[in-house]
Amino acid sequence: MSDLMKHFIAGVIISSAVCAVTLLILGTDKTASDWAIGLAFLSAFGAGLAKEWYDKKHGGTVEAADVTATWMGAIVPMVVWGILMNYI
Fold first, then answer.
1. Which of 37, 65, 70, 78 has its CA 20 to 30 A from that of 27?
2. Burial code of 16-42, b = ≥16 C-beta within 10 A, e = fewer?
3. Domain count, the chain
4. Quick count: other Cβ atoms within 10 Å of Cβ 11?
5. Across the chain, what does the average pLDDT equal?
């Protein structure tokens, strides 16, 4: 499995978990859904940045593509939740 795929999957997992926990805590109304989506994206994006910062501090290679793959993975649960809220 490539490094970019690992970042993508990590973004999906992190944002799914944050979205689910936020929805469990706040409920599923429009405002709560907006918060859940925002927090899910920011948490995955932050995790991607933190990983690259860790790589920089410990001699690894810093790549913008890794951060991009992580936040692109974060979009998947947002799209799924948007479809569920608006069409089902």
1. 70
2. bebbeebbeeeeeeeeebeebbebbbe
3. 1
4. 28
5. 91
Cα 26 to Cα 35: distance, rounded to the nearest angstrom: 9
pLDDT in tens, the chain (88 residues): 899 999 999 999 999 999 999 999 998 888 888 899 899 999 999 999 999 999 999 988 899 999 999 999 999 888 888 888 878 7
Report the distance separating Cα 48 and Cα 53, nearest Å.
9
Q: Is the pTM of the predicted complex or chain greater than 0.85?
A: yes
* CA separation for the pair 41, 33 (Å, rounded): 12
